[in-house]
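To whoever picks this up:

The nightly regression suite flagged NADPH-dependent 7-cyano-7-deazaguanine reductase as changed. Nothing in the input moved, so I suspect the structure step. Input below, exactly as stored in the fixture:
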Amino acid sequence: MTTTTDAPARGFDRRYDVQGLDAIDVAVLDTFPAIREDDTSHYPGEPIEIVISTDEFSPVCPWSGLPDFGKLEIRYVPRDTCVELKSLKYYLTSYRFVGIYHEHATRRVLADLVRLLDPHRMTITADYGVRGGINTICTAQYTAPAR
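Regenerated output under the current build:
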């Protein structure tokens, strides 16, 4: 005889395992100089603003373990370095099985990239897919203190 504690979870009781925050691979991130040392040209105008976006950001819900698909936009004005895109892709992919709320994921990406790049300013916007008729858009911003 099978008891309810031995039966597999069904419906609302089902939950998928999730990884913790230590699965976020910050070490994979890499940079390159914002200005080439061998380029003697003067760059006129304001400092460059870089915008990187992907619609493949997919951490998982910490409660259910189900994926939360979102569009992530990274907008920043570099100081000395830029983020290398292949390393960024690996970093963002490391969130794939991490159980983290939308708000926390957005702030965590900002914190990791600010530590890596020390930019003049940075904004992270995560626009998560509609779930249960509710759309979530999180924006986290950083502006470097005056030096």
